[in-house]
Structures are given as structure tokens and as C-alpha cells.
From TrEMBL:
This is 5-deoxy-glucuronate isomerase. Keywords: Isomerase. Its EC number is 5.3.1.30. GO terms for molecular function: 5-deoxy-D-glucuronate isomerase activity; glucuronate isomerase activity. GO terms for biological process: inositol catabolic process. Pfam families: KduI. The lineage of its organism: Bacteria, Bacillati, Bacillota, Bacilli, Bacillales.
Length: 271
């Protein structure tokens, strides 16, 4: 099995600092990449057999595809502003070019595509915002590309976990192709931490403990979740952001809570 933490590297000539491919992860569906560009720099790619969701993590850019162009998009300069991002869905069999207008952090989320949906802008006003949990399991969600929005494989979401809180909690999994009870979805977690010297804690474990890892995750790292439960903790003093990319045989998110901890979903006084 691949190592579960992927750390950033020095930028390549085209600005890439992180790369996860199905081959490097040892799975079949999810690809993830982070590119950092300075104003005036650009990156251009063919999507080939993949559909892609370009998430402007921070900064502003012009984005072109074969048939479309969106200029001057982007608003937040830090994820911790907690504004919904600008994103662009790009179909398989298309291409995209992203030109940075400011310092730009760009996440490239990829999964197999079938060319069923046109490339399009996903503006902040189209991103559903929600709060999940209660007390110290409360966290804030930006649904960038949920299952009720058109795509062939990709599911993309942002989560903000305040310091001292837990998220992806109670522990849940989605590693069985057993609909309608549970879907099989590979998943990446791309972390940002504020202040940057902090860390998050993520556990990845299965019922039989054939996989049982407790990970210390630093700012800018990716965690691979090939299977199992995967809760996240934000230590006191450090706010945690992560960008999730999921894909699998069916484009639906049906998860199963760890039965040992499912009771936590009932708020105090609501039993």
C-alpha cells in the first residue's frame, strides 16, 4: 500500500507542489494535484479521459477551456477567510489553461469522465454552505461539487474545522460497493493549518484493524483514504481546513458510521 501522507515538494517548472495519481495511490479513480503560480504564470493541460474540477484555493485567475473563458475569477486570498471558492468544472476530452492574476494556489481534482456534462464555472453563489455537528464536533462545509450537481465521477467539498473541534466525526467510512447502504469512494484530504506551524491529527482504520494509522498532518500535506474510518482533530490553537476529493464506481456518498461511536450523533438532551 502507498504511504498515506503525501508531502509537498519544491515547485516544478510548471508550479506543481503536490501530485497524487491513481498509480501512486494504488487505487483506480481519484487524482489530485496542487499548483502554485505567481502573477503572469500559467498552466495548461488536456483532460484526456478525466473530468477535472479546478478549485481556486486562493488567488485570482483567468481560466480558458476549448469553448469557454472566465476572466478575473477568484475572491479569497486565504482559505481561512471561509468564503466559498471559485471553481471550474472541465469535462473529459477538453483542455484548460489557468493564468494567475495574483499569487495563486490551484487544486486540480480529477476522476474518470465520460464527457456527459459541459465545462462550466462554479461560482461562490452556487456553492451550498452548511454547518454540521454540534458543540466541539461542529464544522463548516462548502459543497463545491456534490452529488446533486452534474458530473460523471467527481465529488468535491471543503471543510473548516475550528481549533479544538473534530470533523469527519463520528468516524465514518465508505469503502464497500453495497448500495443503498454504502458506496465505495476513494478519498483525498488536502490540509491547510492556521497558524502554519500547527498540525492536524487524522486516524485511518478498519473494523478488523488491518489498517490502523494515526497520522500527524502538517500544513500543505495530503492524506490518502483508500478504505476505513477517517476522523480528523484540530488541536487547540490551530484552525484546520481540508479539501476532499472523492470518486468511485458510483457517484453517490453513502457512508457508514463506526457503530462504537454512532451514538455521538445524538446531541445532549435529544436522546
Amino acid at each position: 500500500m502507498a504511504e498515506l501522507i503525501v508531502s509537498p515538494t519544491a515547485p516544478t517548472e510548471e508550479g506543481r507542489v503536490l501530485l497524487v495519481t491513481p498509480e501512486s495511490a494504488g487505487w483506480q479513480h481519484v487524482g489530485f494535484e496542487v499548483v502554485k503560480l505567481e502573477a503572469g504564470q500559467s498552466v495548461r493541460r488536456d483532460t484526456a479521459d478525466n473530468e477535472v474540477c479546478l478549485v481556486l484555493v486562493s488567488g485570482k485567475a483567468d481560466v480558458h477551456t476549448k469553448d469557454e473563458a472566465w476572466t478575473g475569477i477568484g475572491e479569497r486570498m486565504s482559505v481561512f477567510e471561509q468564503l466559498p471558492p471559485y471553481s471550474v468544472y472541465v469535462a473529459s476530452g477538453d483542455w484548460y489553461e489557468v493564468k494567475a492574476l495574483t499569487s495563486l494556489e490551484l487544486a486540480i481534482c480529477a476522476a474518470p469522465g465520460a464527457g456527459n456534462h459541459p465545462s462550466r464555472l462554479i461560482a461562490p453563489g452556487q456553492v451550498a454552505v452548511e454547518t454540521r455537528g454540534y458543540g466541539n464536533i461542529e464544522r463548516y462545509i462548502h459543497n463545491i461539487l456534490p452529488e446533486n450537481e452534474p458530473a460523471d465521477s467527481l465529488l468535491v467539498v471543503e471543510v473548516f474545522t475550528p481549533n479544538g473541534h473534530w470533523s469527519s466525526y463520528p468516524p465514518h467510512k465508505h469503502d464497500r460497493d453495497a448500495l443503498p447502504e454504502e458506496s465505495l469512494l476513494e478519498e483525498t484530504y488536502y490540509f491547510r493549518v492556521q497558524p502554519e506551524q500547527g498540525f492536524a491529527v487524522q486516524r485511518v482504520y478498519t473494523d478488523d484493524r488491518s489498517l490502523d494509522e494515526t497520522l500527524i498532518v502538517k500544513n500543505g500535506e495530503v492524506v490518502l483514504v483508500p478504505r476505513g474510518y477517517h476522523p480528523v482533530s484540530a488541536p487547540p490553537g490551530y484552525d484546520v481546513y481540508y479539501l476532499n476529493v472523492m470518486a468511485g464506481p458510483s457517484r453517490t456518498w453513502k457512508f457508514h458510521n463506526d457503530p462504537d461511536h454512532a451514538w455521538i450523533m445524538t446531541p445532549p438532551g435529544k436522546a
